[in-house]
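Task 17 of the worksheet. Students: predict the tertiary structure of the chain below and write it out as structure tokens. Keep your answer in the requested format; marks are given for formatting as well as content.
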Amino acid sequence: MKRIAFAVCVVVLVFGVGILAQTQTASVEQELIKIETSWAEAVVKKDIAFFDQILADDYTYTDSGGNLNTKAQYIASVKSGESVVTSAVNDEIRVRFYGDAAVVTGRWTGKETLKGKDNSGQSRWTDTFIKRDGRWLCVATHDSRIAQK
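Model answer:
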């Protein structure tokens, strides 16, 4: 009888830990989705403080033209006014975890003027996050334009 009670306790403990892990993963997934949603809003608002907070110091951005930018260059491009984004939405967001790293993919749809020319459209992006000092920081972004039909 004691063995059965012990076995039941072990099973309950294992399921309890599994449910707790799923709840924590869902919570972190929602946190990263919120960051991505806020990212689109921050581009429109030119919220430099947001980018300074969520981009790692060694951040690398690869744009749809294959150009590489550092954190400082990315922030400067948002600040400069060369690109004017009047609307931006991230959707189709998917999060995958690898320990203290996460890969987040999604689709961006926006209205943008770049150096005076309409650059509106859609792109697919991949952001790589790491958890450093208890918070998620984006270390790399890759952006690919979706061809207009």
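Marker's comment: The CA atoms of residues 95 and 104 lie 5 Å apart. Residues 2-45 form the longest helix (44 residues).
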